[in-house]
Specification:
It is a single chain. By secondary structure, the chain is mainly alpha-helical. The chain has one domain. It has 5 helices and no strands. α1 packs across α2 and α2 packs across α3. The protein is globular and about 30 Å long.
Length: 90
C-alpha cells in the first residue's frame, strides 16, 4: 500500500462511493475515477488482513487476473463483495 492511500479522506470517499452504489464492479475498475487511490489501497489492505502480508509478496509475481483470483481462491464478484463488506465494517 502506497503512502497516503489509506487516509481518512480517501476512506470517507470510498465509503460514499459504496453507499451510492458506484463502487467498482470489476477489478479493472478499481484504478479509475477520483476514488482510485482509496479503492485500490483498501483492496490491498483487505487482502493483507485476510491472507497476511507474506501473501501480498507472493502476489507480486502475478501477471494476470485469472492467476490472482486462483491464488486468492475466489471469484472477481466474491472478492469485490468481500472488499465492500470489509470497508463497511471499518
Amino acid at each position: 500500500m502506497v503512502s497516503g492511500q489509506l487516509n481518512d479522506q480517501r476512506f470517507r470517499q470510498i465509503k460514499q462511493v459504496i453507499a451510492a452504489g458506484k463502487n467498482p464492479v470489476a477489478l479493472e475498475d478499481f484504478w479509475s475515477g477520483k476514488a482510485r487511490y482509496g479503492q485500490s489501497g483498501y483492496l490491498v489492505a483487505y487482502i493483507e488482513k485476510t491472507k497476511g502480508r507474506k501473501f501480498l509478496f507472493e502476489l507480486l509475481t502475478v501477471a494476470d487476473e485469472d492467476t490472482l483470483l486462483k491464488k486468492l481462491g475466489t471469484t472477481e464478484a466474491e472478492l469485490i463483495d468481500a472488499w465492500k463488506k470489509y470497508v463497511n465494517s471499518l
